[in-house]
Amino acid sequence: MFDVQEELKKLPDSPGVYIMHDASDTIIYVGKAVSLRSRVRQYFQASHNEGLKKDQMVRKISYFEYIVTDSELEALVLECNLIKEHRPKYNTMLRDDKTYPYIKVTLGEDFPRVLFCRLMKKDKSRYFGPYTSAGAVKDTIELIHKIYHIRTCNRSLPRDTCKERPCLNYHINQCFAPCQGYISKEEYRVNVEAALEFLNGNYAPVMKSLEEKMTAASDALEFEKAMEYRDLLNSVKQIAQKQKITQFDGEDKDIVALAADERDAVVQVFFIRGGKLIGREHFYVRVAGESTTSQILTTFVKQFYSGTPYIPKEIMLQEEIGEAEIISKWLSKKRGQKVSLRIPKKGMKEKLVELAAKNAALVLSSDREKLKREEGRTIGALKEIADWLGMERLSRVEAFDISNINGFETVGSMIVYEKGKPQRSDYRKFKLRTVSGPDDYASMHEVLTRRFTHGLNEQKELAERGMDVRYGSFTKFPDLIMMDGGRGQVNIALQVLQEMKLDIPVCGMVKDDNHRTRGLYYHNVEIPIDTHSEGFKLITRIQDEAHRFAIEYHRSLRQKSQVHSVLDDITGIGPARRKALMRKFLSLEAIRDASVEELASADSMNERAAEEVYRFFHNHVEAES
Questions:
Q1: Would you say domain 396-561 falls under CATH 2.40.10.240?
Q2: Residues of the chain by 3-state class (helix, strand, coil), percent to 5
Q3: Are 31 and 42 in contact (CB under 8 A)?
Q4: What is the topology classification, in CATH, of domain 4-91?
């Protein structure tokens, strides 16, 4: 039994992170403290008041734990990581978890490439961005390939030079084919340097060059070429126009401002890179309690910059934030250079912050109804289902389905919805081991048994190692199991749960004669449901998703089986030789009709393997005749 008062006495006077749990062991709040003893004790003092929502949280605290750190900076980093991992209910939360696109130039290669990526790594490459539009990034990369003839293949050069024929880009004059040795490393680098200049925003040289080429082609009556240069020139102008100048100091800045109501906030961020506004993005924040603008900004800055790979030299904010000095030190350490947090008071910078705040207010106003609709489709729909079934709490739902064709390659699917949304990282698929033939009940018994056996075993293993059992792939059990069928499927699930001594509610999705869901089968009673409700629509989505996941898995197994049934049955023919034969002959009929010499000429093949293939097909033909 956790004795709060006794545990409060044991708290150290050290910096660290404290973690609050409720009675169901769920983490409901994570906080950072310069002194754990002083900060955690405050929550349990009668005079303590941090607003109604925090008071509600304190009443739900069943126990707390803490992690001591060497400094406040370490505590800040750990707090950000834990909040992002557990997403506690009573923390102010950044709802979006986006990764932004970058343009990557692989300068560590002998013949560099220009690539789209979303992660910035510490390598020899050079990165441009982040950008807010993936489409604009792809358009820019495509334009660079056309203008500077940068290769798009992933061949390792010069090692793979002349190993394969040049690709289509060479034949349409979009690549100089370094893979064939048609251009030297030094000549290629000249084009790469020009592409780097372009990415840095220096468009004038390429625009001048394209204009000259267009004019020369037109004078030479080569109108098709002139049109190509004209189109390229227009593309460059479009990209140049998007890079709106906002500052003239050429530095990288983020401008951060927000608008909030009693429940939600929208934070608007303007991204300025090299003195140019390259884009903007807004983020939804779930507001905890009576949070002030300064508190929301503080939380946002910590959560957002803990996840983004690029940190600018300066962050301009709407208001002073708490812990500004320690946050600046943390960001400077992440960047490797000094990062300043500023609140502009006049001039263009102040106007930009005002503009960001104005944009945030517009988004909050226009999206309020959309957010309500989304909540109705997800959390509201779950609440409706919980009300129909008389359940107090419903967050995680697991649904199962079986797919086979006359008992062939029977498979099972498990899909997961949390808070009304698909949790695809938790989906699982099962290839049946013990059931032969089309027996859906026996198949479902095996699938459910394997699912919960995995979960119990993982829980035991993690507990023995002193690890949090929630970190396993199967350890988190559902609040409700939904079966694609009525009484029979529900009874199978209840039988498995009884065998494994688990208490989890199970309901069946009952269909009418037209194969449409008409109700839920629960506790031996069919419960009618409103077919126009959000709850019904969510049940339909869950049902369709379980079908889709099972059918796609079954289809993939059938395709593998069809390929295996012929070539993989030949002695000495593995995946590499199978691919080589199909690449050379394109069809099984052509392989069957080929001579031993022709078969041996395929990559990876030798005379012995060719004879095995020839013998396999011709023995079959003789046996059939």
A1: no
A2: 50, 20, 35
A3: no
A4: GIY-YIG endonuclease (3.40.1440)
